Amino acid sequence: MTLTDGTYRLGPSTGRLLIKTGRAGLGRRAGHDLTIEAARWSGEAVVAADDPDRSSVRVTVETGSLEVREGTGGLKPLTDADRAEIKRTLGDTALLHTAEHPTITFRSTKITGTPQSFEITGDLTIKGRTHPVTVHGKWNGDRLLRGWATVTQTTWGIKPYTAFLGALRLADDVRVEFEVARLERADRPE
């Protein structure tokens, strides 16, 4: 895979977009660290390798497409019933309120660095609230483009999930990770 100047499509056919949660509180041993995947998302990256100021990224995630892929830790293994309950909870008013806010969007405002190591600063909109976030990324020069950002849920009006009268709760910070395994040109046929 070669990263050359141009416009690239992003989405589930080219890579993965994951949300990783952690646990907090006295009862954290009872819960799970979750890996949640966006099953429906799309985006576009405009690459100007020698002039990052001319580069840009935009991504849209369908909030109703978030699926629990893995749950580690906890006293018991994560069950299918647990996964279904977590999906329902994600759509709840206190968390993402997917009926009213069907998408999460990210639009870059500044890109710095090189294709091999870069930072993308941009506006992240969740539940109608927009705040800046910085994405850290790397490209290994061969096949894989990957990166991450930390999102503090309460900044966007999301109340981290709690159970057992607050003794178990999700950590406020979640890690959003992306991995692009295949670049697909949007500005010319492959």
UniProtKB/TrEMBL annotation:
What's the protein name?
YceI family protein
The superkingdom of the source organism is Bacteria
What positions does the domain Lipid/polyisoprenoid-binding YceI-like occupy?
7-183
Q: Could you tell me which SMART domains the record lists for this protein?
A: YceI
Report the Pfam families cross-referenced here.
YceI
Q: Which family does it belong to?
A: Belongs to the UPF0312 family.
Gene3D superfamilies to which the protein is assigned, alphabetical: Lipid/polyisoprenoid-binding, YceI-like
The lineage is: Bacteria, Bacillati, Actinomycetota, Actinomycetes, Kitasatosporales
Q: Which InterPro entries match?
A: Lipid/polyisoprenoid-bd_YceI, TTHA0802/YceI-like_sf
